[in-house]
Amino acid sequence: MSSAVAVAPVTPHVETSADVPANTQPARRARRLPALAWRLLRPTVVVAAFLALWEVAPRTGLVDRVFLPPFSEVVSAWFTLLGNGQLWEHVSASLSRALAGLAVAIVVSIPLGVAIAWYRPVADFLNPILELFRNTAALALLPVFILILGIGETSKVALVIYAASFPILFNTISGVRTVDPLLIKSARSLGLSPVRLFQKVILPAAVPTIFTGLRMAAASSILVLIAAEMVGAKAGLGYLITASQLNFQIPNMYAGIVTIALVGVIFNGIVVAIEGRLSGWRATT
Fold first, then answer.
1. CA atoms of 240 and 86, how far apart (whole Å)
2. How is residue 9 annotated by DSSP?
3. Which of 119, 146, 169, 274 is deepest in the core (most CB within 10 A)?
4. Is pTM, for the whole model, over 0.70?
């Protein structure tokens, strides 16, 4: 007569913070602090090293300080322009043009991109003209915009609209077309109407790709606008750079270039912050 012996299943033990001795937790945190501090300080170190090289190279004769003044002289010129109001005049002129063109591009390109991505007849109708113009650089059309729209504000804003529209448009198309089909099927099975489907599923899932296009468009709008202001303008950062070069005010020229870089960084930071607010639901899924 044999007897069966029941063996209880063995559950693997997962170590938790409660199992870790209290005196080892501060040690782990202490080991992580240097890595975290370096990750936060690394961008600052790189930028500081670049600025230090900029300061030292002209003073030691590595480059001619007439054509590349030390960074401290550029900073002094920047504060001089800020103090006399010239810098704000040029920044406000450039920002008003860039923001106006970018706003129009967003309003037009996102709905058009959704329509092209979702409705095949719209895509078949518009794809040939889009492929034609997407391969035409915005700056190549600058003379055309000036001839048709004049040398005033309209041509500059129109050029920004043209340059900013395509990154937003094509990223919107890509974002909508790459939404997980299982999400769409699940939403339809729950009885969502087409409008609610776009609102609750498709657009939220496409937000990261759309905002990639927005970041590219923001950078493009600044670049083409500066080039347009160099050709014909009475105010703006592009005009400031060109006028400073012609008058051989080299520190002022570099002050304008530094301002463009700062504006670009601020633009990118704002777009990233808005993206984080709109796609924050991803962190909880």
1. 9
2. P
3. 169
4. yes
Task: Identify the residue whose tokens are 């912050």.
Answer: 273
Q: Which residues contact 158 (CB under 8 A, 6 or more apart)?
A: 101, 145, 149
Task: Evaluate if residue 37 carries a pLDDT over 70.
Answer: no
131 backbone dihedrals φ, ψ, rounded to 5°: -65, -30
Cβ atoms of 93 and 235 within 8 Å: the answer is yes
CB atoms within 10 A of CB 73: 17
Q: Return d(Cα 196, Cα 201) in angstroms, integer.
A: 8
d(CA 221, CA 179): 28
CA 147, CA 87: separation in Å to the nearest integer? Answer: 29
| Tokens describing residue 41 | 């300080």
- What is the pLDDT, as a whole number, of residue 229? 86
Q: Which of 13-27, 30-44, 129-143, 265-279 has the lowest mean pLDDT?
A: 13-27
